[in-house]
Amino acid sequence: MAAAIKKNKILTISRIFRLYKMAPNTYSTFLFILIAIGLCFADDGLHEMEEFLKRELSLSKPYQGVGSSSSSHWELMGDAMVTSEQVRLTTDMQSKQGAVWSRIPCHLRDWELQVHFKIHGQGKKNLNGDGLAIWYTKERMQKGPVFGNQDLFTGLGVFLDTYPNEEKHLEAQKTRYTSRTQRIFPYVLAMVGNGSISYDHERDGRSTELGGCNAMVRNLKHDTFLFIRYVRRRLTIMIDIDGQHEWRDCLDIPGVRLPQGYYFGASAITGELSDNHDVISLKVYQLTVLRSEAEENEEGEEITVPSVDNMDLLRMGENEEGWSPIAIFFSIVFSMLGFFLLIVVGLIVYSHWNENRRKRFY
């Protein structure tokens, strides 16, 4: 698979060509191309960023010693097993949970993680579960209910959730989502925990998520990838699941504060429903990013507890409910009535003013 920076450049070129088709003349075309190039490269800083594969932090074939040797950089837990083609976290059987964890902490300031994974099984739509999680956390090798890892974790969790617990809960209560809050599963979301925040299973983590996107990742014949980048305290997640070798945006959140020295890992769990959850590779890249003196001073303070700036604003945005069709109808009706009322009042005022003006001439 090509490096993430090369894929982002391909996306940049495709955006420019779309702008070219939209431009009405040569001058506009040239202007749009300059703007597109400036925005894309200014946002991502690709012209001043280099990446280096960190083999000691990465998991890839042929998985030498994983799960059987104490000298391996990766350790298995629970029902996880190694084959020649993948690390299988769970088989397509009920009540399984497994994980693979790095033994070496990551002390990189800026990093990128590319995950090659596969989720497949016999279950039909919404009759499979529960999902796979990618971790960057202070704790490691801890069994628990959050996709096979402990609750109240400290660090970052990225969840590929394949079962809609909240939807089933609402169906049992004979209530429905609004058009604004409904999700399509499988769903990718991210959460930052500080050791005291619990993952809400009944709501599929909605109350603590930073953002997310739908991702139809089950039973695909082509490769599927997840991309996690942490640079300049900005968390970016993209997916490549369409077999087109192009990254698709999932979420982009500034102000994410993650300490150094945490561990990478992957875990999965099954309950009454099941799936095969496979990890083919976890490749960690060190990002070398040029910073100005002001940026160095701003980011110089050591981060000891994971946190997210303006988290309350993110939650407010997610909790806002969309208007119902009835509310929209009445708002339009009252707006039209108010408009006509203003016209009538204006005509009355104008007629009085015009009559008074004529009286002054007689």
UniProtKB/TrEMBL annotation:
It is a single-pass type I membrane protein; Single-pass membrane protein. It comes from the Eukaryota. The chain crosses the membrane at residues 326-350. Keywords: Disulfide bond, Glycoprotein, Golgi apparatus, Lectin, Membrane, Metal-binding, Signal, Transmembrane, Transmembrane helix. GO terms for cellular component: Golgi membrane. Gene3D superfamilies: 2.60.120.200. InterPro entries: ConA-like_dom_sf, Intracellular_Lectin-GPT, Lectin_leg. Pfam families: Lectin_leg-like (PF03388). It is found in: Endomembrane system; Golgi apparatus membrane. GO terms for molecular function: carbohydrate binding; metal ion binding. Residues 51-287 form the L-type lectin-like domain. SUPFAM superfamilies: Concanavalin A-like lectins/glucanases (SSF49899). PANTHER family: VESICULAR MANNOSE-BINDING LECTIN, VIP36-LIKE PROTEIN. This is L-type lectin-like domain-containing protein. It comes from Umbra pygmaea (Eastern mudminnow). The lineage of its organism: Eukaryota, Metazoa, Chordata, Craniata, Vertebrata.
